[in-house]
């Protein structure tokens, strides 16, 4: 049996606003607030469960997307005037990268989590 990541908790300052941000930018589906979590489905096997917490360390979340999804997400980033850049240390030049024959970019969510979208897997050989 293949093993899949089922969900991960994403700490934030406002779980509802965070869930709506990911829905708006990525096109993920905000399901509902359940107990202490705002649940957003990424795909059939993965959800992001946003949970309010006063203090937390910002994390990095990378999503592999198709070329058309990349274009759609980039358009939503631009439409919402969100700064983005080609690398994790450069999220403000409004440029993308072309690593490994694909496209990628980095931007931050309202909680300062670093988000990455890529169209090609990293080559690790």
Textual characterization of the structure:
- The protein starts with 6 loop residues before the first strand and ends in a 7-residue tail after the last strand.
- The protein has two domains: 56 residues, 2-Layer Sandwich (Signal recognition particle alu RNA binding heterodimer, srp9/1); 68 residues, 2,3-Dihydroxybiphenyl 1,2-Dioxygenase, domain 1 (Roll).
- It has a four-stranded mixed beta sheet with strand order 1-4-3-2, covered by helices on one side.
- The protein is built from two helices and eight strands; from the N terminus they run βαββββαβββ.
- By secondary structure, it is an alpha/beta fold.
> How would you spell out the order of helices and strands?
EHEEEEHEEE
Number of domains: 2
- Beta-strand residue fraction: 25-35%
Give, in spatial order, the strands making up the sheet with the most strands.
Answer: 1-4-3-2
Look at the structure and give the CATH class of the largest domain: Alpha Beta
- Unreliable segments of 5+ consecutive residues: none
Based on helices, strands and strand pairing, what is the structural class? alpha/beta
